[in-house]
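Protocol step 4 of 5: obtain the predicted structure for the target chain.
Materials: sequence only (see below). No template structures provided, no constraints applied. The aim of this step is simply to have a reference model before the mutagenesis design in step 5. Sequence pasted as it appears in the construct record:
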Amino acid sequence: MNCDEARRIMLTEQVVDGVDLSGLSLTGLDLSAKQFARVSLRGANLTGSRLVASQFRECDFSDALLNGADCTNASFTSCRLADALFVGASLYNATLVQCETGKLDFSQANLERFTVIATPLLGALFNDTNLTSAIFTATALDGVKFPGCRLTLAVFEQASLQGADFSATDLTKCRFTGANLSGAKFTGATGSFAGFIDVRAEKADFSGADLQMANFSGAVLDGAGFGRACLEKSLFVGASLKKAVLIGAKLAYANFSQAIVTGADFSEADLSVANLHRANFSEARLAGAKMQDVRETDKELAEGETWVSPLKIQQETT
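Step 4 output (structure tokens):
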């Protein structure tokens, strides 16, 4: 099919099904609010095109160029996107669901409110990408780097991020619930209220991070590094920090209730007013640590843990 015929079909048809447009130049076309099914756009050039609110199902975008394209509110379901380029593109509120991917390039792209579900993004490039409020659910992002990215309110729920690099990023209110962060790097990361609930982050590196009021409750942080990190008022309730390194960390008002910190190194750390209720500090190193007004037992928590309802007592005695 030649370019003129392809352009005619793309511009006049509301539903495009089973058409082969591989390798064609389709730059600058307005293809908004259209439906595409089983269309091959392999190696096609869609630079600067408008795909606003368009739906793509089982389409092939392998090696396609979508640099500067406007894909706002677009959806890609069961598509092939191997090595497609989205440099400087807008994928605001767009969705990727169960797609096959290769090394996608989202550099300088706007992925605000972008949603990815069950789609691997191994090798993807996110350089200076806007990921504000983006959602990655059950997504493989192992080893991916996020230099210069905006990650405020981003969600990485149940994602695999082993060895990923979030160094020097802003993680304000970013959530990693249930994610695998083993060996991930967060050196110099900043932001308050970041959520790391129930993550696996063995040997992750948070050195020098400023993540005040973060929530690490239930997290596995064995062997993780928090040297010189600022984690004041953060929660480590029920977390495991076996042999973690927290040398010189700022942990004032942090809550380690029922945490396991055996063999951890808190040398020179500031644990002032920290809650250590029923935490296991066996073999932990505390040389030079500030321990003013530390609470080794939280009276209110202790009462709550042993509380038995009057109804249950009545039932047991009758």
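Step 4 remarks: The beta strands are 15-17, 35-37, 55-57, 75-77, 80-81, 95-97, 100-101, 115-117, 135-137. The chain has a mean pLDDT of 92.
Proceed to step 5.
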